[in-house]
Design a protein that fits this description.
single chain; 206 residues; alpha+beta; 2 domains; 8-stranded mixed beta sheet; 33% helix
């Protein structure tokens, strides 16, 4: 996997200029926003909770939830989404949850401390700024074979306003769009493998 420091070096090579590292990071994040429309990443959010806790705030980048589980005394229990219609309620709904907005609520509180895990598909993670990660040791959280999209996108944006670089820009743009299609295909294939067990999140409250 490539660290951000390496990807910055690759970007500087593509544009043949020692561009400021923070400006390149900003371009990387602009690229991730563009990819966020078509690319999903498998993630897990865990919560350490006290007995009786029932309400949790899910991450704001959740697109679909794949699995919700609780761990008690080393044992893992899967939770099911509580149906909306009363006649569909299971007889024992102690291992179920409901979703409203960004709130996930357990139907019954646990009698002892526990860990809640939410496996989900979300957007690619933002690259921290130079101030947040001075060592530039962060690695993008998507497959390494696609890391080159970050330098490519940055080079495309750099050459946009340089008249003499339009041919080079089109070369990078064609490569970028090809990789983006591959990433989109992989994301959709990953989602299809887990459906219909996933739960889509609609963020109409934002």
């Amino acid at each position: 996997m490539a660290k951000i420091s390496e990807l910055i070096t690759r970007t500087q090579y593509l544009i043949d200029k020692n561009l400021d590292a923070q400006k390149i990071i900003d371009l990387f994040n602009e690229c991730l926003e563009d990819l966020g429309n078509v690319v999903v990443v498998a993630k897990t959010k865990t919560y350490q909770a006290s007995s009786g806790t029932t309400t949790f705030t899910i991450p704001n980048d959740v697109i679909e939830i794949a699995r919700v589980s609780v761990t008690v005394d080393g044992k893992i229990y899967d939770l099911s989404l509580r149906p909306l219609r009363k006649d569909y309620y299971p007889q024992d709904d102690s291992l179920s949850y409901s979703l409203f907005g960004d709130q996930l609520t357990l139907q019954k509180g646990m009698k002892q401390d526990f860990q809640l895990s939410v496996d989900y598909f979300g957007s690619p993670q933002r690259i921290p700024s130079l101030t947040e990660d001075p060592s530039l040791s962060t690695e993008p959280n998507f497959p390494p074979r696609y890391h080159r999209v970050l330098p490519l996108f940055s080079a495309i944006r750099y050459y946009e306003n340089w008249e003499g670089g339009q041919d080079q820009r089109m070369t990078y743009l064609n490569e970028y769009e090809g990789i983006k299609k591959e990433m989109s295909y992989d994301s959709q294939r990953m989602l299809r493998r887990t459906r219909p067990n996933t739960v889509q999140i609609y963020r109409g409250w934002q």
